[in-house]
Amino acid sequence: MVSEIPAPIVHKTLIRKPRSEVFRLMATGQGIDRWFTTDMLLEEHAGGRIEFRWEDWGPDRYTGSSSGTVLEYIQDERFVFTWWEDAPTTITIEFADDEEGCIVTVNEHGYQDDPTGWERCLECATGWGEALTLLKFHAEYGLVYEGPPDA
Fold it and tell me: What does pTM read for this prediction?
């Protein structure tokens, strides 16, 4: 039996928008598609399916998907799901009011303590930081990452 990496991935950011608006951008398929994914599937209830989909994303023009299950869905407060079908991890996203807007906290745990687990953990540790930055820039300024120019 493979043990888990003991420390979770944790990222937190302040977004200067109301919590309900930030929740819609981060915890609905339509919202996430506005700034991060392509044709995202998100069934907004516990037990629902979730599938992040990307097409020509980033400088490597990544096309692919990652699926999981929604574990908890509390409007404007908390969104919990799994992904990595072969070795699932659990992602908890919490939304809290702040005098300046909304604090979004992402916590991911459950990576296996093996070479594949560490590779995925490092990839997602940077990925969640990038995702929250993109979310902040979109929510506050309307910016959307459009990828590298065509060669």
Answer: 0.93
Report which DSSP code applies to 144.
Answer: -
Q: Which two tokens stand for residue 94?
A: 């919490």
Residue type, 145: Y
Tell me the C-alpha distance between 30 and 21, whole Å: 12
CATH number 3.30.750.80 given to 9-141:
no
Q: Where are the domains of the chain?
A: 9-141
Helix (H) or strand (E) holding 9: strand 9-15
Instruction: State CA 53 to chain mean position distance.
Output: 12
With beta carbons less than 8 A apart as the criterion, state whether 110 and 124 touch.
no
Q: What is the pLDDT of residues 31-68, one digit of tens each?
A: 999 999 999 999 999 999 999 999 998 888 899 999 99
**Which residue carries 């977004």 as its tokens?**
15
Beta strand segments in 48-144, E? 49-57, 62-74, 78-83, 89-98, 101-109
% of the chain exceeding 70 in pLDDT: 97
User: Under 8 Å CB-to-CB from 31, ≥6 apart: which residues?
Assistant: 24, 25
